[in-house]
Specification:
The chain is an alpha/beta fold and 211 residues long. The chain has 7 helices and 7 strands.
């Protein structure tokens, strides 16, 4: 949903809802070979990917990737450069997604509320395919008073996983990992594979929201 440029002139202040950082960055295989063998195979596939996620978490956790926090901060800076007054608001723990807008509206007096939904991890197209970083950000800008949706966009960085309607940004070719061992071998590079996608995503969103 494109941003209404005429309405933009009426927006002076924006509150961004600060997301909680992910506890782990999942390792997923879109077409896992185990999925070809019914329910038992699917269960084995899920267990395999969960084990890979845990192993990788132990390697990269010290690097404090904090994707959600960094996406929010980067977008805040870019929107301020666009001329908006921007602040961050934090919702009470365990606020349901469907209640986020209502709760946020009671915590700010800004003209608009920007709700982000960010997911990230490492995904391979198949069992023998390289792992690529993935960050998907869904952005929704609402009028605080009327709660009318004034802008909506999904931006996907890395392996295309978000559907044809999303804006696709390809990852840097250096961030391809042929297997789980490669992901774990250089934790700093593995972490950088995700954080490298933050600025291209927020640049696109901020460009859409220019007045």
């Amino acid at each position: 949903m494109a941003f209404n440029k005429e309405m933009a002139s009426q927006i002076k202040t924006v509150s961004i809802v600060q997301e909680e950082n992910q506890a782990k960055y999942p390792v997923r295989i879109m077409a896992h070979v185990g999925a070809n063998f019914g329910l038992i195979g699917a269960a084995i596939a899920e267990a395999d990917m969960a084990a890979k996620t845990s192993k990788l978490h132990n390697k990269i956790a010290p690097h404090q990737i904090n994707i959600q926090e960094k996406v929010t901060q980067s977008l805040k800076t870019r929107l301020e450069s666009n001329g908006y007054e921007v602040n961050l608001i934090k919702l009470p723990a365990k606020t349901a997604d469907k209640q986020a807008l209502v709760v946020a509206s009671n915590l700010t007096t800004a003209d608009s509320i920007l709700v982000l939904k960010t997911q990230s991890g490492y995904v391979a197209a198949g069992s023998n395919s390289p792992y690529l970083p993935v960050i998907t950000v869904n952005a929704n800008l609402y009028d605080r008073k009327t709660q009318k949706l004034n802008y909506q966009e999904t931006v996907n960085y890395g392996l295309q996983t978000a559907g044809n309607d999303a804006i696709q940004i390809d990852a840097n070719p250096q961030y391809q990992f042929k297997n789980i061992d490669e992901l774990m071998k250089q934790p700093q590079k593995t972490s950088a594979a995700l954080t490298d996608g933050i600025e291209p995503i927020t640049e696109k969103l901020a460009s859409d929201l220019k007045r």
